[in-house]
What does this fold into?
Amino acid sequence: MFLRRHPHLLVFLSLLALFTLGVTLLSEAMGTGALTTSFTKILGQTLCLCLIAIAMDLVWGFAGILSLGHFAFFGLGGYMIGMWLMYERTRLIVEPSLLAQALPPTAQEVQDAIAAQIFGVVGASELPAIWTFAGSLPAQLALVVLVPGLLALVFGWLAFRSRVTGVYLSILTQAMTLALALYLFQNESGLRGNNGLSGLQNIPHASNVSQAWISLWFVWGSALALAIGYVLATWIVSGKFGSVIRGIRDDEARVRFLGYPVETYKLFVFTLSAVMAGIAGALYYPQAGIINPAELAPVASIYLAVWVAIGGRGRLWGAVLGAASVSLVSNWFSGGGAPDVTILGYTIAWVSWWQVMLGLGFVLVTIFAPKGLSGLVDLMLVRRDPSRGDAAVGRDDGSLRDAEEAR
Amino acid sequence: MNTLLEVSGVSKTFDGFKAINNLSFAIGQAELRAVIGPNGAGKTTFMDIVTGKTRPDEGTVRWGDLGTSLTRMSEARIAREGIGRKFQRPTVFEDQSVEENLVMALRNRRGPIPALFYRRSDADMDRVRELAAQIGLKAELARRAGELSHGQKQWLEIGMLLAQEPRLLLVDEPAAGMTLDERQHTTNLLKEVAKTRAVVVVEHDMDFVRRLDCRVTVLHEGSVLAEGSIDHVTRNPRVIDVYLGR
Amino acid sequence: MRHLRRFLAVLTLAVLPLAALAQDEGIEAVLEAQGDLIEESSRRTIEPAISALTESGIPLAREVLRRWQERELYRRMSDGVFFFAEEAGDDTLALTAIATGENAGEAPEDDFTEIRPNAGIRAMIQSALAGFRLQDEDITLRRRAVEAIARSPEPEHLAMLRNVMPTEPDPVLQARMERLERLLTVQFAATDAERVEAIESFGADTAREVRAALTPIVAARRMASVEGPAEGDNVARTLTPGSTDLSAEEAYALLVSRGLAPERIDRAARRDALVANIVDGRVGGVPVAALDTQNARDDAYAALAAEGVVPATALELEIEEIVDAHVFYELYTDPAAEVTAAARDAIDRIAFSLEAQQYIDLGLDALSLASIYFLAAIGLAITFGVMGVINMAHGEFIMLGAFTGWLVQTIVPNYTISLIVALPLAFAVAFGAGVALERLVIRHLYHRPLETLLATFGISIALQQLVKNVFGTQAKPLTPPDWLAGSLVVNDIIGISYLRIGIFGMALVFLGLLLFVLNRTRLGLEVRAVTQNPRMAASMGINPGRINMLTFGLGSGIAGIAGVAIGMFAQVTSEIGQNYIVQSFMTVVIGGVGNIWGTLAGASLIGVLQKGIEDFNPSNTLAAQTYMILFVILFIQFRPKGIVAPKGRAAGN
It folds into this structure.
């Protein structure tokens, strides 16, 4: 029933399943070797980026909150899982050598030895208080959800309560992620300053499993998370709740006069989206292997908005399309995958010119194709609209009212 | 006659300009009332204060049988208390269908969790169809609200107001930009509605007010200048002086 | 008074040579009397000999002292007569008679004893010589002598200074001497009353030498005892163990060093002791496998200690009890309570005054930072106010300005001229870029502020990378002209560089200019009209497109100028704008939309805040920025529309 009302859901899930199957069959773990392990990891990371793009589309495309700080949540999710990965792996290395000593180690000694290993690089040897639960996987998994959720809840409560909207809100979210990044850059933050957490690709208790297989596990995990996230988001935006948040996007005051607690709705969506971002981050960074505060820089979050805009905001599959295509293409160009082109004696090295092209290309998309890539898909399928599903265009280009007045 | 809304001694100043000056106003449970007055008389600010958009500097706004104070409540809370407002410009959600607009306005629990698990019940959908019939948009239920004509949007908004089942309706210039036929339709609609609840209509068009055939309050410089039947106020020399002109 | 002094000085000068003639023979007598002491040259006994020389009043005594210090004083063994002598060859000395200064021929070195003053004696001679130099005819030598005393004061200098002070002809040097005398009085005067008076005479003087004179007086040493300070002890303060002044560890270490508590054997050492005493898999009766908690280990160690195998020690828990049983306090090394009290007061006064001056200095820093933020943000604020557009590429206009400044400098070698050329040129370049951006991009996104934000971000990354591709990633120097290079130094605390003053001046100029343009010109009127109500303005015949274009150009142009200013003290790179853009946003958010005074207030607040927090936690500028941003987020709670909010009913919509 739910599937029938949302045909795009079926298409999306089938494509995702096909993709996962394809990657699995072609992966190094299966022996064909058509996809290198590092590329498999990139594909897995891309799935995580698609998930955060969905989170971004929820707040921006549907609720009209342009958050320029979503990578703060993404990064926090990564940090939370990274703490366990690093702690546990260090413990597994340290404990045997301690056990080899004359006296059996006390719990304190084990912890001190782990702390010395992890924090030697920033000149500290004590385990900071925030690492209290680092030894427990369930606790850190809970924190993956709780920490970004709580940050979003507090920040959102402060911001929405004082009715900060529009570009003001965007700037504030940007400030939030910048503040967090700067905080994490300090050695005193207890998260190893600018060194960040590293070696996250080595999964504890799985040291005899090859990276090829681990990369595949993460592709499966990320695909599953993306599928769940997509279904959840579809469900959220399709019913009356979706109707209300789209109403908030288009005319906040009107929704308020209908008696809906607008701030609570915004807070709900914002927090939910932050949690999704946190989960995406927790899946992303073990594949990337390292997380440091630079990941939380405001520019990353703005890029996220760019992906969603290029894909087509206000449509979940648009956001996924944008994130996947732009991040993969970016990877290809800036990773030196694209051959250099010589025009009139000047050699264009894509590694350095790609960003110029991306920037200008994005400007062109915003001006000429406000619906982004999903608009192109519309053209191809010659979609006509009144049966609207979850698809929506923003307040700006949807404003027939303004067009009417202009006439 | 029981009083539904009682505004007493309310004042509001914007940067030294007294938009509302010691205004007192009361309306009963089922009453149609027209509010007229020149530009800057404080009509919109009055509505803003009642609906919680603006907080008064002084004075009280009492509501309902219990005399609850509205001055500290949020807009959404006031709306849930049963005060509906229609803006001057039609504000419907143009991006959504007429049906979706009406469903959103239906009197149901307003929190995010109930909204998330809301399922359209038969009773609700019957009510939507009934409302659509009342405002003449039954054939347009599946259409996007943005595609409606100006007058249709006005009605849709009134329909949304009715869906909220408010006890008090504040309507700002409902007839603006309507054709003669549409005005007639609107007048009838308002009179019909006022049989079961209180309706306050702010209007400039004296013909329209006359057709409403109800008690009229004239505002001037933030306070009540005159009140009574249309004939009574139009004969009042001060009203003629400041508003109607000689 | 001054005449009298001068007269005395002249008199002294006139009389001295006569006296010298009469007394030059006397030097031999003095030397003879002190000969044995001099020859012995022992630090303990030499004092009377030096005093005899200095107090003899014989001018030659000074020369004798000098030669002595230089190790050119010899004594003939045969008759004990002193000569000045220099090595003249192998084992031969060239002699000079002391009294007459005449050549006394050469003699074999073996007949003479070389007087060898050790370092201690040389220092004593040095300070004795200083007394002579204080009276030298050459004022530069006198000055030098005074400063030598200031550098390493000795008790005897006090009397010397008091001696020569009244007759010093140069009033400046005399004032210096008087001040030095006060300083020496603080340290060396005989009576406490004198010292207290001298201390108080300095008030809240923050000079380094005053602080140096006062600090040793309040030096204190830590004490610990069961019964507390004795009667008559000059107690500086009592200490609470576990406070920031005295940690529990330090307290215990103090007790150990005083022999009041047993040496502490830490966990690691105890553990080693346990390991050393493992017998058959047990330590002190406890199986090794059970020693995986600290309590078990403590028990095992206690058992070993009871057997007498290892020394007993205080465990962590007992340390607390021992520490609690003692009183900790500090005693002044100087026993005179009223002197230490006066010194303490003076130091407090000075500290307060120092702090005040540091705040002034900090205020100047904050002001210059605020000027930079103002210049960087005002363009942003104007465009935001007029068009409701946040220009993410604003930082890149700052960068364009900085690069223009650098380019001009590579062509025009004279820094002053290049600066004069660069400022308007940077404005023109950024103005052009701004107008182009408005015409090509922003115009098409009217009424879509969020998309404008993102589109300008696209421009921002493209511009950044473009500049990087063209000019490379290497930082470019933009050197300020020499007259902007120095600093205006008020005292050893307050100082500000001319560059910062220049930027402050520039901010003032632009503030004035903008106020003039917006409030007194046709353009300004139209800009304000469009800001308040674009539709109405359009219907009054104002072309909003033209106004938008011009304001955008103006805002961008100012960013270009800010770029030149910023480039002069930061390196010019393609990322230079990024370092200021977030602060600029904060400034606009705090200041309120589209209001010059608001931007000024916002910039000041941000500048003061950043410097203030940095001062609070000087080691960490990152933390300062974090806290500042948190402050801004909280600030928005209380003034969502900024300091200078848009007014009236329209503001609510």
Chain A has one domain: 2-297.
